[in-house]
Amino acid sequence: MQFIGNVEDIEKDILANLIYDKLSSLILDEKAVLYYQYPFYRGDIKSDFIEAKLLLVSPIYGLFFFEVDKNETFTEAIQDRVDTLYNEIASRMLKHSSLRSRRNQLKYELHSVIVGNYVHYSDGKEEYMVCKVDDISTLINENKLDSPIPQETLILIESCIDGTSTLNQKKERSNVRPLTKASILNEIQSHIANFDIVQKKIAEIDIDLPQRIRGLAGSGKTIVLAYKAARFHAQYPDKKILYTFYTKSLAATVKNLINRAFKNYSSSEPDWNMIKVCHGWGSSSSEGVYYNTCINNGYQPMTFAEARRYSDNAFAYICKELYMKDITKEYDLILIDEGQDFPSEFYRLCYKLCNTKRICWAYDDFQNIFDVEIQNEQNTFGFDSFGKPYIDFSTGGNSLQDQVLMKCYRTPRYSLIYAFALGLGIYNEKILQRLESNKQWESLGFKVEKGNSQTGDEMIISRPEENTPSYSNKEFTKDSINVKKYASIEKECCNIADEISRCIQEQGLLPTDICVICIDSNRIGDYFSNISIGLRQHGINPFNLLNAPYNNTTFFSEGRVTLSSVNKAKGNECGMVFICGIDSVFKNPNNVVMRDKLFTSMTRTKGWLHLSGCGDGMEAFLRELKEIEEKNYKLVFIQPDRAETKNIENVSRATDAAEHHIFEQIRKLRESGLKDEEIQKIINGLLFPTK
């Protein structure tokens, strides 16, 4: 039996703890779930709050919620409380035909159990089960189901209780033909959204301690954070919440998720005066943590250009400068999304803004291939004047403080395998990056079949099917990844536009189901110009994020296909992802900076991948793909030396920065009127100066 609740709290709740012990000795099936102080509901007024003491969902025994009554007689107050809970839970279940036996009758009875001291109660109260703690086992056994609840039905029941049954935001795709891409996305939308057991514990248990949520991109971290915000707001409407993130385009998504999650707890709307959803930096035209904190405390905020005069890491600099000043604590709960993208100085600023210890951050364990070490929370938040860390998970305060989500709900299994193999350079002439331990591989949802992650070890790594939803494994096989090599950039762009048109016209996809990510930053302008022309010729409007205003906070635009750089695509997902300019990665196959861009781009898909390029680098790319297939989609390699991979990373970063600078200078020379032949002579003169 899985327990969803704060263990420390129930241990202090004597009667509830006794009920828990009785149920633990009785319920043997591992699929049973026991909730503590959940679900709860908030009425129209702040004092109107009610919660279940304990709620049992068991495929063998059925559904029971327990109310504790210390009175000597059955009162109207306890009756009203039980009736309200029953009506709230039952009304959600009755919305689903598969959970009804008749129009207003549940297929699986929701038993109301009052644990009290009185032996019997007045006539007319037969719908309430009343017993003492010692009689719970007998009562449960007497109402045992004739046959177990099917797994799919059990998931639906739990999603009704959690409120995740309304989690899927469905897109309207009309006139969809069978066996098309649109029909597959519609089918996936119809699957019941439901938290797995780890997600339940994070989203539904409130702890007054710092908490980190780790996992791959697409493991549900943002949704879990949004539910934490909604739950906390419903339970403590007078307390202030901050939800912050790195990618500007996440703003609308986060507010929408919080709003939908809040409906699980209340019929009213969230009070957005008490929930601040904003970017980490901010400006006069767009709210942000840094900007708001400066204004609220009477300090003049720095612009990016001003901060760059003092440090290359402008954001870290301004956060440190502000952190050193006197600032007012403002929030009772702080939620940080995309934590891997923020410097430690931002974490320390947020910690200083928090009235409590309730600071929770989502950290992508592998947002990029340089994140090969697990974040050290002690160094991130710093130390006090006595050298004691502000946050230290090693002290064993609460097991919920550091949680790992191993299941990936976004990126299909084969796309993820390809992304890791190509990103780490597993089948390159030399391995470009390494993970430090078997535990780290396993925390990412992989299985170590051989090796111990020590230098020189022969490693075999696989991706178990169970760490990807079954519907994704069924629909998105290795054939959902399409690779094309073209003779020129013009032909590549023309064919991408043609393929997008086919996806919309023949496969029924919406323009917002599709995005194009250009991985070649030097030629991204040419790519998007050509693709835009091709799309318009098909009557399709592009949404080119290169031309979007600075304060744009959306990744999609209704009725348009998004064209994005790698950086702007972070934190977003799409049913069909086209990645162009692949050859730029493999012109120098040892450049891990470019490998990282490829990894990030590939993990944006939640369906199909179309990978294309037009240069000589495509041959090396195709060779690595073939090697992945020949190794039966496993990562087979010799663990490289740490110093060697670090040196490769340093060289790659220096090379990438130099190439970008040189390209910018060439662009300026072209704009001045020089022809490429003249520019080539200048470069040759610098490389081979005459004596």
UniProtKB/TrEMBL annotation:
One of its GO terms (biological process) is recombinational repair. GO terms for molecular function: 3'-5' DNA helicase activity; ATP binding; DNA binding. It holds the Pfam family UvrD_C_2. InterPro entries: DNA_helicase_UvrD/REP (IPR000212), P-loop_NTPase (IPR027417), UvrD-like_helicase_C (IPR027785). GO terms for cellular component: cytosol; DNA helicase complex. Signal peptide: none annotated. It comes from the Bacteria. Residues 561-611 form the UvrD-like helicase C-terminal domain. This is DNA 3'-5' helicase II. It comes from Bacteroides acidifaciens.
